[in-house]
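---------- Forwarded message ----------

FYI, see the Nuclear RNA export factor 1 record below. Original note from H. follows.
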Amino acid sequence: MRLDGVDLPKPITFDLEEEDAGNLPKSQLSFMCDAEHGSVMAKTFIEQYYQIFDSDDRSPLLQAYHDTAHFSIMCHIGSSDSHSMFSNFIADNRNLLRFDNSGKRLKQLKIGKHSIVGALKSFTGTEHDPTTFVVDLVFFTPALIQLIVSGLFREKVKPTSGSAFKYFSRTFIIVPVGAGFCIVNEELCLHYPTSAQMKQMTSKPKPPVSAMPAPGPSAIAPPVVNGDHSDILAKQQMVTDLAAKSGMNLIWSEKCLNETNWNLEQALFAFMQLREAGTIPMEAFQK
């Protein structure tokens, strides 16, 4: 086998019997380390974050970042690519393989939520295609969350050369703050898409971010970021209050509030009736 005129080494294979090879786990498009609870948070975060990121005003993303958060962007420029293909992002490029100067590396690192959102606002407008998203929830604990999102987007302002389509991979480090979450560290990697990826983007209309398929079981979790922040905080407080008074977990508390049109008194009354009838499942109290 040859590639670009060069003989390739023999492929690396596994010394397995045919019956053993059939028992290997199947590959997954997305990975959830905690599908029961983490997928809810991941879906909510992604929907709300990219709805704002793709809007005309990215200022509300200030609510999503911690005061001391760190952010960097890396443009992967291949041998057949040029800097002009990433002209809308290259000014903030922090590819450590390209910079030996420690001062330059530090300058390209965005520290603090105002510096980060300022950089995000300087980027060209974007349109992400959520149907191309691959979501990996690598780590999920009450104290720390690591979420990786990759997929395709289109630049609203075409770069100096090449296609407006880009492949991205974003790694978020998230911590709980109050009733929501904050990003404390983020790395954005941009790549020029393959011909198959560009064909995928040009052959179909862009769906809304809210149409993104859930990476796991459907449920409701406290929102992460949203334009109507005061309404979110009020609802989160109601969920917390109902959970404390009823003993139910947050997911079932929010379900109860949804079914009673977010009336806390009616939700408590409904809870007591259902508890007396013995119709509340045990999973509602598992935390």
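H. also flagged this: The helical segments are 18-21, 38-53, 102-108, 113-122, 195-202, 229-246, 250-259, 264-277.
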